[in-house]
Task: inverse folding
C-alpha cells in the first residue's frame, strides 16, 4: 500500500505499530504477524469488537504473538519492506474499502485483507487461538453490508 493512500488515523497507527514490532523483533521485513500485532493494540476499537464477537480477546492474540516472536530487542530504525503476504493483505484492504464505497482504508479493511491470507503467519496464529480467518471476513462483510 502506497503511503499516499488515504488511511484513517487508526489504520496509520496500526501500520506504525506493525513497523515497530518488526523493528523490535528484527525480522528484516513487516509481515502479517506484525500487521496483526499492529491491529490488536487497541482493546476498544472495531478490530477488538470483531475478535470479541468471535470469542478471542485481542489481549490473548497479542500475548500469543509476542510469545511466538521471542524477546524484543532494541529497535534499529530503518526502512523495512512488507512481505509479499503483508503487501497482498494491504492491497486487498484497499480494494475492499473501494468496493464498499469508503474513501479511506480503516483498520478493519486491513484485518479483512489479513483474513484472506490463509497461509500466513497471522492466519496460523489465529487458527492456533481458535479463530477461523474465514469467519473474520464473513463477520466484517456482514457489518459493512448492514452499514450500507
Result:
Amino acid at each position: 500500500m502506497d503511503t499516499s493512500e488515504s488511511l484513517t488515523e487508526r489504520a496509520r497507527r496500526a501500520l506504525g505499530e506493525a513497523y515497530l514490532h518488526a523493528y523490535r523483533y528484527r525480522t528484516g521485513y513487516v509481515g502479517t504477524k506484525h500487521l496483526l500485532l499492529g491491529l490488536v493494540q487497541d482493546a476498544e476499537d472495531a478490530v477488538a469488537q470483531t475478535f470479541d464477537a468471535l470469542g478471542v480477546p485481542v489481549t490473548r492474540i497479542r500475548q500469543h504473538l509476542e510469545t511466538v516472536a521471542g524477546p524484543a530487542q532494541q529497535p534499529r530504525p530503518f526502512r523495512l519492506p512488507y512481505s509479499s503476504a503483508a503487501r497482498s493483505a494491504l492491497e486487498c484492504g484497499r480494494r475492499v474499502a473501494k468496493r464498499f464505497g469508503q474513501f479511506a482504508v480503516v483498520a478493519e479493511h486491513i484485518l479483512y485483507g489479513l483474513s484472506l491470507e490463509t497461509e500466513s503467519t497471522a492466519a496460523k496464529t489465529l487458527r492456533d487461538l481458535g479463530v477461523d480467518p474465514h469467519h473474520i471476513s464473513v463477520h466484517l462483510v456482514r457489518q459493512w453490508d448492514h452499514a450500507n
